[in-house]
Design goal:
about 30% helix, disordered C terminus, single chain, Outer membrane lipoprotein wza fold like, five-stranded mixed beta sheet, wza like fold, 7 helices
């Protein structure tokens, strides 16, 4: 008889251990309005299905009210065990708590996605799947997004790589009730004597852009430009500061390229002398061409 009791105890211990191990990996915390199942091993009359109140508590069949909101199911199980033990209801309580139904079954997706809004999810899902619900990123989205956890308001940063394997392997889970914020990509500006002056978003794979990359995206400098006289204007708390940008040396490989910050402005000056020389060359060429048609 003793052997049978020992085997039964060992079985219950293994079940509890495995259940506890699986719950320790649970990242979704219990919140108000969630439906939870409380299971007391070897005491089924204390099992119950109960909804968490707005104050974050549940009322136990024995033991009173247990505050379990903002805790993992594993941690909540330990809270109930302690109450049953300290109340002298059980000598060796073993409790398992699982979330049966989430009160907040929507995830909010805000910012630079094609269809922002609230979307229903019943279980934790990959951030890639969640962004797909909103149609994916739009053309000016920053790849550095933020996930705000329900309840704790913890901010979880995530970088959406253009590398498929890296994006999938590093994807984090989004839980029901979380918010996903996709900010707008930074904008840098190039003005002056370039082919296509204007503002350009930092939407490449690294969410960064360098000075030479910006000049290239703007179509390069014109023949009348003076790259050696280029200036970099960078935004600070007190306004913009202006520094010399060795663009000519960078284009020749004599100076290293460097990354730009959002709101940086590169100005490439115009040379009237070079413009006049280019126009003069064109005039001389036109005169030479016209001379061929003399009679």
């Amino acid at each position: 008889m003793q052997l049978k009791q020992k085997c039964m105890f060992l079985t219950l211990w293994l079940v509890f251990t495995l259940t506890g191990a699986s719950q320790q990996n649970e990242s979704l915390l219990i919140g108000p309005g969630d439906m939870v199942q409380v299971k007391v091993f070897d005491t089924p009359e204390l099992d119950q299905l109960v909804r968490v109140t707005d104050s974050g508590s549940i009322t136990l069949i024995m033991g009173g009210e247990a505050k379990i909101s903002s805790q993992s199911p594993e941690a909540a199980s330990r809270v109930v065990e302690k109450m049953l033990l300290e109340g002298h209801y059980l000598l060796n309580p073993r409790v398992s708590i699982t979330i049966v139904e989430y009160a907040t079954q929507k995830v909010s997706i805000l910012g630079e996605v094609k269809a922002p809004g609230a979307y229903a999810i019943n279980t934790p899902r990959s951030v890639i799947d969640v962004l797909t619900l909103a149609g994916g990123l739009n053309e000016i989205a920053n790849r550095r997004i933020v996930i705000e956890r329900r309840g704790t308001r913890q901010k979880v940063p995530y970088f959406i790589s253009n590398e498929p394997n890296l994006a999938l392997d590093s994807a984090v889970a989004v839980n029901p009730g979380d918010s996903v914020i996709v900010p707008r990509a930074g904008i840098v500006y190039v003005l002056g004597d370039v082919a296509r002056p204007g503002g350009y978003t930092m939407t490449n794979n690294d969410a960064q852009i360098s000075a030479l990359q910006l000049i290239a995206r703007a179509g390069g400098t014109n023949h009348s430009a003076v790259p050696s006289g280029a200036r970099l204007m960078r935004k600070t708390a007190d306004g913009y500061t202006e520094t010399i940008l060795p663009l000519s040396a960078m284009q020749k490989g004599k100076k290293a390229d460097f990354p730009l910050n959002p709101d940086d402005i590169i100005y490439v000056p115009f040379s009237y002398l070079r413009n006049f020389a280019n126009q003069a060359t064109g005039i001389v060429g036109s005169i030479g061409s016209a001379a061929m048609y003399r009679f």
